[in-house]
Amino acid sequence: MTKKKTLYESEARHDRAAVAAFLRLLADQIDAGKLALGEGDGLRQVELPSNLAMEVSLERVKRPKKRSRYDLEIELGWRAKRKKRGKEQKLERETEKEEGGGEAAALLAPVKESPKLANPERVLLEPPDEEE
Q: Mean pLDDT, to the nearest integer, of 65-77?
């Protein structure tokens, strides 16, 4: 049986500049291969592989007697790395000690401060004023 657990979620309204700043920060983290969302006890960090599945959709929701609403959704997906066992794991730990911590230390390193934004994985954008 497949189990799905939400590790982090946020939804809030922000001005366009704040959303763009957050997306730039997110893009930098994706490019670096390490993603960090949240803060304090709610901080969630994951390592990203070099190849990701990406789905982008733009939807218009028409509502009777109301303005249409638009949703832009960007979804990234990847498979977790397999857990290492026995000698591989021991060798990796010894290598990390020699190299000053390796990937594990890099994940725990301070992450760039985010713009004043709740670090949403999905942001609902304000629909344009004009109707189409």
A: 93
